[in-house]
Each structure stands twice: as C-alpha cells, then as structure tokens.
Amino acid sequence: MNAVTVRHVTKTFKGKKAVNDISFTIKEGSIVSILGPNGAGKTTTMMMMLGLIQCTEGIIQVFGKEPGRKEVRERIGAMLQEVSVPDGLTVGEIIDLFRSYYVKPLPKQELLKLAGLQDVVKKKADKLSGGLKRRLNFALAIVGNPDLIFLDEPTVGMDIAARRLFWDSIRAMAKQGKTILFSTHYLKEADDISDRIILFHRGTIVADGSPEEMKSMLTSQTLSFIPEDSALLAELSQLNGIMGSRAEGQRLFIETRQVEEVLAFIFQNGYKIKGLRIDQGSLDDAFEQLTADDAEESEQEAV
Ligand SMILES: Nc1ncnc2c1ncn2[C@@H]1O[C@H](COP(=O)(O)OP(=O)(O)OP(=O)(O)O)[C@@H](O)[C@H]1O
C-alpha cells in the first residue's frame, strides 16, 4: 500500500516552475530522503504533500486521499523548516497542550524520550537553544502518533549527540511501521538512514533508488591491488571503461564502472595479484555528478 502517490505534479510560482512534472510513490513503512541543491523543489513538494499549498497540475494522494483532508491530517505529522514555539510556556506545558488535541496521543514520557527532552521539561520553550527548539518541534510533529512523518531538514542546528538520538528515534518509529519522508543537505544522513533517495534538481527528479543503487549506478569504483607483474598497469590502461589508472608504490589503482570486466581480464590473462580492494564511490560523488550542470546552466542563464 502506498502512503503517498504523486503523479505528474507541477507547481508554478508567478510563471516559474518550482516543480516540473514529478511522479513517485512512497510505500508504507519506508524511510525516504529527498535530496537536492538549494531551490531544487524539495520544500515545495513537501508542502504540496502536506496540503499546505496546492499543485498547479497533477495529482497528489496521501493514504489514497487528497492531502489536507481531516482524516489524512490525523495520520500525518510534520516538522517544517521554520522553528516556532509558543512564548511563555514550558516544554512540559506545550506538550500537555498538544497532547490534549489528540484522541490517542503518544504517552508523555515516551514523547519526551523520543525527542530527548527529559531534562528540559520545566524550561520555558522560548528560552531553549535552536537545537532544542527543533527537538521540541519534532516532539510536536509526532505527538499524535502519526503513520506518516514529514521532516524538512530536521537536524539543522542539532549537535552530533542530538542528531544521533534523533535518528535512533526515527529508526525506532520506522520499525513500528511508520513511513518517514525527510529532506536533508547532509548526504551521510540520507546514506545511513534511508531505504531510498529521491534526488531533485531544478524542479525535476534526476535519480530515484536505494543509496546503494545510487552509488553503484552513478559513481565509479576504485579497484586496487599489488600485481606480481608491473606491466599490468600499461595493459589495463588500454582497456575500455577505464576512467583512470595510477601506481602508488607497488599498488595500482584503477578507476572504473566495470569492475567485473577488469577482474575478468586480469584473471583470464593469468596475471597474479594480491591485496585486492574495491572502494565504492561516495554518495557525494553521485550527487555532484547528477547536479553538475548547475554552474554551467546558471552561467548560460546569466548570458
Ligand atoms: N512562495 C513562493 N513564491 C515564489 N517562488 C517560490 C515560492 N516558494 C518556492 N519558490 C521557488 O521555488 C523554487 C523551489 O524552492 P524550494 O524551497 O522548494 O526548494 P528547496 O529544494 O526546498 O531548496 P532549499 O534546499 O534551499 O530549502 C525556488 O526557485 C524558490 O525560489
């Protein structure tokens, strides 16, 4: 069953397409990250899924219904970029207040633990640090025990310990079958946490797959080993699909997208090697490749 369906959706602001004909579905129980450079359309897409803004064209459904409807809103929680907390109330009072809006809210202690707010229950919310305010916003996003949680750059301003706790809580919620959709600029977070990454660029989706798929599809791998016969470097450099080759001491480094073919060549031709290592390119590399036209296009636009 799909938690979200987005079909041929376009959003135009004053004649400019912020999101241009995007389509995807999100399966219930998955953790999906939305990546992309500034202005790629991530927040706009999230706001449309939340029913906070209307799409110009296309169809969006959340749990099979139009976003923004009461029965849909009851099943979703959202933590948006702007951090706002009510003035004058303590963290505990705000949580009590928000819990009172729901028929079946999460138990207060569980909520405090999930958001890491146990030590600041009696503090005035407007006096909290930026990172703690975000944690409070997170608590309020999940207070109603939602089935689908939207998080727009949730860890901005959180320190490393807070981030770790935050993602542990997210993983625990996903284990209970909740669907998590988050945007981030931290590629490592997307790599570590999500089952799937949707990469936005200039209002369109330029890649969609698991972090592993994305890395292996889009980036080269580096094969390295120590050959018995140093003539192997010259032989390999001539092969098709070799993107780079070098020697460091006795060790050779071969950059390629065709690791299997290179290994087959080595073994079929009777070369002996030892200390074989294969290093996968990083998600940062994949991200850079997919959004590489940015500077070029911007320059063209400026002409
Ligand atoms: N209310 C609005 N009115 C006019 N243009 C808008 C509005 N909201 C967004 N845009 C434009 O739509 C495009 C996509 O913006 P959006 O905020 O969705 O990008 P983003 O991927 O979330 O970026 P960031 O990583 O900076 O948060 C940008 O060019 C932005 O200027």
Automatic annotation (TrEMBL):
Tell me the protein's name.
Answer: ABC transporter ATP-binding protein
The record, for Pfam families, names: ABC_tran (PF00005)
**PANTHER family assigned to the protein according to its UniProt record, in alphabetical order:** ABC TRANSPORTER ATP-BINDING PROTEIN
Q: Give start and end of each ABC transporter domain.
A: 4-227
Q: Which Gene3D superfamilies match?
A: P-loop containing nucleotide triphosphate hydrolases
Write out the GO MF terms.
ATP binding
Any idea which UniProt keywords this protein has? ATP-binding, Nucleotide-binding, Transport
